[in-house]
Amino acid sequence: MRVSQLPTPPVAATIEHLREHHGETVNDPYEWLRDKEDPRVIAHLEAENAYTEARTSHLSGLTESVFTEIKTRTQQTDLSVPVRHADWWYYSRTVEGQQYAIHSRIALSDSPQRPELSGEDAPAHEQILLDGNVEAEGESFLAFGAFEVSHDGMQLAYSTDTSGDERFTVRIKDLATGAVTEPGIEGVGYGLAWSADGSHLFYTRVDDAWRPFQVWRHEIGGGEDVLVFQEEDERYWMGLDTSRDETHLIIGLGTKNTSEYRILPTTDPTGEFRVVSPREEGVEYAVEVAGEDLWIVHNKHHRDSELARTPLTSTSSADWTSVIPGQDGQRIVGVDAFATHLAVALRRDALSQVRVLPLDPGSETGVGEGYQVPVDEVVYSIDTGNNPDHDTSSLQVVIESLVTPRSVYDVELATGELTLLKRQPVLGGYDPADYQQHRLWATASDGTRVPISLVARKDVLADGTAPGLLYGYGSYEISVDPYFSVARLSYLDRGVVYAIAHIRGGGEMGRGWYENGRMEHKKNTFTDFVACADELVSSGWVAPDRLAAAGGSAGGLLMGAVLNLAPEKFRAVHAAVPFVDALTTILDPSLPLTVGEWEEWGNPLEHADVYEYMRDYTPYENIRAVDYPAILATTGLNDTRVFFVEPAKWVARLRETVTSDPGERPILLKTEMVAGHGGKTGRYDAWRETAFEVAFLLDQLGAA
User: What DSSP letter does each residue of 620-660 carry, written as one string?
Assistant: First the structure.
């Protein structure tokens, strides 16, 4: 398509909007795009969507091909591994042609052994608890926030979001009759928890900044709901859960540096929550209730955490007895407690581990030596799976890698013997032996070694000719472990090398890895990613002119920042729900999440040095008048985590500033008008959305 034939991109109006901080006045002429109630804003977003559709019309065939590949490689009628809890087998299943899962159970008396799906038929004696397809009727979007069966198995509490704003409506269903028995509770956050007798349901509410800050108690068939706890400190986020042994309700409170837990017996729903240990600035801990003990993972003595034990009645960290002391190079992530064993989640050398420890009341620490669950792959991911029962002889773990589909195992706790229960089916003749995976190491600008996980077809050589895609995140201590993806095969089978950059700011290499990629060290996240890009090229895995990059949310901030740092290193970029206007957002404490985010990014409102540091890397503030890669920015109108206005403003300024040839390297914005942070929810809709994004990058890499 010649440039003269290209459709004309929308041009956002510029309206003066002054921002004054620390002696600096900045005009932000696209800030008016923030108001989604303004018809002009909606018209602009729709014009952007029309432009994106016009500029990518030549990709319709490729998009359809990729969508078909995803669909035909997926076993569309399938059953999750049924898990026993009390007197039932619980599972979910999907049916070909249906968008959403069906959540069901079978009584143990009807099926003493795990039920299996036979062909297109539902298992015998199935009781459907909730059919997502029925719930989605008449809706363009459906997401579930919680799904909790009462302890006696007679009631189901579940919450739904039909717009994408992550604010839910709770309903309660009588599982004997199938009737919804209570009026919907509106405006609820994540987390639901039942009292032991099913007489009360606990839920959370959010404040004006969309922060979960209250726990409420709802009496089944009773009067007005009762506020039982409110967190006043705006830095603290709240979670609500039930202990695995179902004896306690748990409120978890935390900032990026500090946490506090409160517990209440499920048999005493009208009682007062008790603090496990009062919050201490800089001390993070997590609680697992098990009988007369509390198992605590905490960082009071070591930044990579240790495991401790304390009596159930303890109210102070002074009572904590060390079980696994903190060790350099070993990050203790969490613990699952069972009647006879503990399962401890660890991280070493940028890889996850699960260690099983037998309980030994006679020993000084209360545990025996134990063993590590083995994984025989060079890069992989392992985690505990669905383990609802406290009293069990086996542990479910989930193992996958870049080439091995998601695999669910039972680990016999006493012996460590593994039994494969289910491996994700991949249709169409998929063979892991046709692919190769590797661990590479890049050297960052300050000499730090940064791990990279890489996968490619077996016949791809490191000869400097292949196209490549580098994915990154690098924030909030979130680890992006090697995982299997059916959609990724559409890249790999076209010769694309796929790599994950395990950059600082994530949690792959322990707490120090995170701390050296946040606050005043945030720029390490960006330079690490550039170093990983350089390693892919210098090692010959990717051609220097055929490398794309992708990241979402805080990973979208990463995309914007590395484009400003080194636009010449990338041919194309997909920035999903990108946090590209970070300085504007973090300067405004009235916006959702901002106050709590000050411990991740710093507080530019109060501190001039933080303001200057963030201004120096925020993507929207630092676009240069040079050639940039082709860019696809995707967002959702109802996203409450990263407002749609951030990519809308970013794209407007990119088009105004960069010198790239728009015919060769378009800058596109695609907004889902009824969706939130995670995009579309029906699986076929989500696959089609993914197929479009894959097609865009394949086309730009010349790998279509």
Answer: GG---SS---EEEEEEETT-SSS-THHHHHHHHHHHHH---
Which of the residues 277, 317, 639, 660 is marked catalytic?
639
What is the per-residue burial (b if ≥16 Cβ within 10 Å, else e) of 134-165?
ebbeeebbbbbbbbbbbbebebbbbbbbbbbb
The band of 182, judged by pLDDT with boundaries at 50, 70 and 90, is confident
Convert the pLDDT of each residue in 486-508 to its tens digit. Answer: 999 999 999 999 999 999 999 99
Question: What is the residue type of 565?
Answer: L
Query: Where do the domains of the chain lie, and which CATH numbers do they carry?
Result: 60-72+429-700 (3.40.50.1820), 78-130 (no CATH)
Query: Dihedral of CA 191/194/195/201: which sign?
Result: positive
Q: Indicate which residue of 150, 553, 574, 660 is catalytic.
A: 553
Please enumerate in sequence order all residues whose Cβ is within 8 A of that of 4, keeping only pairs 6 or more positions apart, or say none: none
pLDDT band at 2 (very low <50, low <70, confident <90, very high): very low
Gap between the Cα atoms of 608 and 209, Å rounded: 24
Cβ atoms of 373 and 420 closer than 8 Å: no
- Please say whether the beta carbons of 279 and 257 come within 8 A: no
553 in catalytic set: yes
Q: Which residues are CB-neighbours of 275 under 8 A, at least 6 positions away?
A: 260, 261, 262, 315
